[in-house]
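Tip: read the tokens left to right.
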């Protein structure tokens, strides 16, 4: 797991010592840290930091809570805002958790900074004592859906299954598991329904704009054609970009749900969803979502054509006006 580390220059020695001491518990070396110290002499350090943070799974901020919050740490502020923009999970490791800041502001209490009001989604940040940093990160790296689900199942010894109490516990456990499985299937179906409704909405809007451009030609007015084409092209382009982003978000959410469903199915008699996926993949059967992702691209092309059309008509009108 790749980890981007943020810290104050004054805390560099302690942070390095904590990470070095923790390596003894990481026998397989599954944690990889990137410690970047912004330097004014490095002209493009923002670009380097952004590239490294994009490659990392987690962002860690080793924070020393200060008394006055008067020191505006611009580099740390920029890095935390970048982490929020890239939607990275941020873990705040408090180097002095017993320190009580003078301010009552929750965010300032966590970060010891004077730009807390500019940070977004404060609740998304997790705070952990720095002494537990390596152990916490190892647990995060080793976490998996299968292990998390299996560990929560109550194992019933085979000798107890012959008794009425043991069989009742076994049946109750399976009943609860099947009920949770059913709920997860229903939420997955609802998510696909919402995805379909979203696609239908975007398709309707884009189709209406394309039809509007076509209707503008019936007026035979070059100015109207130019304005309508440009506006429709800009709106369709924006809609398609947002449409693609929505579909990507739905795909990621659905992937998480099916990861949980597949993990539950490994405990159940039938592994239905995994078998269906393998069969479709083997026989070259594409899912509906794969075909659905083509629609934004098609309408995006229409949008580009309309922009070119509007620009072309506009240039023609300017030339005609100049010649006149």
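Filled-in amino acids:
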């Amino acid at each position: 797991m790749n980890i981007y580390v943020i810290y104050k220059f004054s805390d560099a020695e302690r942070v390095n010592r904590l990470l070095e001491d923790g390596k003894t518990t990481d026998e397989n070396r599954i944690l990889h840290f990137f410690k970047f110290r912004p330097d004014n002499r490095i002209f493009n350090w923002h670009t380097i930091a952004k590239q490294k943070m994009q490659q990392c799974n987690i962002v860690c901020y080793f924070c020393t809570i200060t008394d006055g919050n008067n020191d505006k740490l611009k580099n740390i502020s920029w890095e935390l805002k970048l982490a929020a923009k890239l939607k990275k999970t941020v873990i705040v490791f408090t180097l002095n958790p017993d320190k009580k800041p003078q301010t009552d502001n929750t965010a300032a209490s966590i970060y010891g900074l004077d730009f807390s009001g500019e940070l977004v989604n404060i609740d998304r940040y997790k705070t952990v004592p720095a002494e537990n940093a390596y152990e916490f990160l190892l647990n995060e790296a080793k976490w998996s859906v299968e292990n998390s689900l299996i560990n929560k199942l109550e194992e019933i010894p085979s000798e107890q299954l012959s008794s009425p109490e043991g069989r009742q516990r076994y049946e109750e456990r399976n009943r609860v598991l099947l009920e949770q499985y059913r709920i997860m299937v229903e939420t997955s179906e609802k998510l696909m329904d919402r995805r379909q409704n979203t696609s239908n909405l975007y398709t309707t809007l884009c189709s209406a704009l394309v039809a509007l451009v076509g209707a503008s030609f019936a007026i035979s007015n070059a100015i109207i054609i130019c304005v309508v084409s440009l506006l429709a092209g800009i709106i369709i382009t924006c809609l398609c970009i947002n449409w693609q982003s929505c579909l990507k978000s739905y795909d990621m959410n659905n992937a998480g749900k099916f990861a949980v469903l597949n993990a539950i199915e490994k405990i159940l008699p039938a592994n239905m969803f995994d078998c269906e996926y393998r069969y479709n993949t083997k026989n070259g059967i594409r899912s509906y979502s794969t075909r659905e992702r083509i629609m934004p691209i098609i309408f995006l092309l229409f949008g580009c054509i309309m922009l070119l059309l509007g620009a072309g008509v506009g240039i023609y009108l300017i030339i005609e006006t100049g010649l006149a």
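The first strand starts at residue 2 and ends at 7. Confidence is low (pLDDT under 50) at residues 67-71, 101-123.
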